[in-house]
Amino acid sequence: MTLVRTVEPVPGRAGLRGLQPEHRSILQQCRTPAAVAEIAAELNLPVAVRKS
User: In 10 A of CB 13, how many CB atoms?
Assistant: First the structure.
């Protein structure tokens, strides 16, 4: 299980401008730690598992 979380943007960067709606949704979901599988499920996307 992999968790991801957003961080505050760097001052002076573009921020959310130019992002696709899916990207904005991911950023919103990750304000608190969220599992990659949960994010994929919310967006109705498959999760690929790769062993390295």
Answer: 8
pTM above 0.70, yes or no: no
Report the b/e string of 23-48 with b at 16+ CB within 10 A.
eeebeebbeeebeeeebeeeeeeeee
The better pLDDT of the pair 18, 14 is held by 18
Residue among 36, 25, 27 at smallest CA distance from 2: 36
What residues have CB less than 8 Å from 6, skipping those under 6 apart?
27, 30, 31
- Are 39 and 5 a contacting pair, CB within 8 Å? no
Q: Does the pLDDT value for residue 43 go beyond 90?
A: no
